[in-house]
Structure of Flagellar motor rotation protein MotA:
Amino acid sequence: MDIASFGGLALAIAGILAGMMIEGGSIGQITQPTAAMIVVGGTAGAVMLQFPMFIFIAALKQGAKVFFAGGADGEAIVTQLVEFANKARKSGIVSLDADLGTVSDPFLKQALMLAVDGTEPSEVRKIMQLELDNKSEIEEKIPAVFEAAGGYSPTVGIIGAVLGLIQVMQHLDNIDEVGRGIATAFVATIYGVAMANLICLPAAGKLKFRHREETMIKEMMLEGVVSILEGMNPRMIETKLRTYLFEHKPAPATGKVAEATA
């Protein structure tokens, strides 16, 4: 769970609502289901028109990454690769075939399978880098969906406000009704601007970070497998792989690595 995402959204909403109520407003004044329907429906429709359906659906599924990191644990991957390096150094790369069942990440498992099958290090790098690039090309479009939604929603909110004003104009003979109608009409604008700046655009930024984080983990996996194939010292492999981690920590002096390098 990403505390920053949950806390940031809660803080933003609480700050806005608190400020409004201090000024004498109430939550009921900005609770308009019709305005929400116009903004959400109009924005979703515009985004669907811009992107292929599979990208739109993928964005909805990937949206959870804003609040839940998921993905592979970098520290655990480093530990696992160092163990594989120790075993390959003692028993040969083919001995890792028995450990493939313990690998949960499909990318790492495929790279190890290529290594066990006797593929040259340069070919392993080329094949897996191609797969990573192709996947990244699709993943990079996910934040663009949220950025597009952040661009459309304020304008759709204005459309909702104008529609509300059209309805208000039919009651010009009743000044009290006009005043309430104008206030209600502008709720759609608030929804549109809030949706863009409190949800869509921040979500796009967080998803870009998630994508970069996941890409670096995949690159770390590939570098680890290639280094094992090249026969690199396990301690050097561990030091190299830790440079890929976002939260970089000094490599601990593990017994297994020390034993392998002795």
Remarks:
- The mean pLDDT is 86.
- The CA atoms of residues 25 and 94 lie 70 Å apart.
